[in-house]
Amino acid sequence: MGTPPTPAQAGSYSFSLEQTIGDAPVPVRWSPCRPIHYVTDPTGAPDDFAVHLQAVLAEVSAATGLRFVNDGLTTEAADMDRPAFLPELYGDRWAPVLIRFAPEADVAYLAGDVVGVASPTHTIDPTTGRAHLVTGVVYLETELTSVEPASEAGPAYTEVLRHELGHLVGLGHVDAPTEAMHPSVSGATAYQSGDLAGLAVLGQGPCAPGL
Ligand SMILES: [Zn+2]
Description:
Blueprint: E1 18-21, E2 24-27, E3 29-30, E4 36-41, H1 49-64, E5 68-73, H2 87-90, E6 97-102, E7 116-124, E8 131-141, H3 157-168, H4 193-202
Parallel strand pairs: 3-8, 4-5, 4-6, 6-8
Antiparallel strand pairs: 1-2, 7-8
Helix pairs in contact: 1-3
The structure holds zinc ion (ZN).
């Protein structure tokens, strides 16, 4: 999901959502002053999912400075309209990000060639008037678990995970075919120069004291 692709040269990046602050477009970001909590549902996931998820989250942390906190396992179904608050499951706070595999029968967006989706939720901090990302979902197509890896860098789904976690923290698509944020499989086994430049900007947002 995201905006139309931007310039094709390597080193480019885009943001999936921007707001106007003053007269300038500014990306909608997570507050860097609190960690991003997440939960996983292991249903349909390979045994090594937790290990590879932590590794890719560490890449995002290194590139953004944002911290992730694992709130453990859950049994939530994949829902593109997941509420931002689920107090009966998680108490009086923003629901943690839900990361899981899902069959395309459960998530219409994963039909056809689409193998992953990320949808962060944003809201306005009433104390500053700025929009921030506060929760979200990341779903990987279950069929990915049976795809042969193209490299020795890890299972095939890690590349999709890297792309979708880029969206989760606010990156959009680029036309540059070697970047992880190219809309189709790029073969990138790590974030590339444009991805990294965009991720650095996404980690430098203001705090959101009112959220
Ligand atoms: Zn994408």
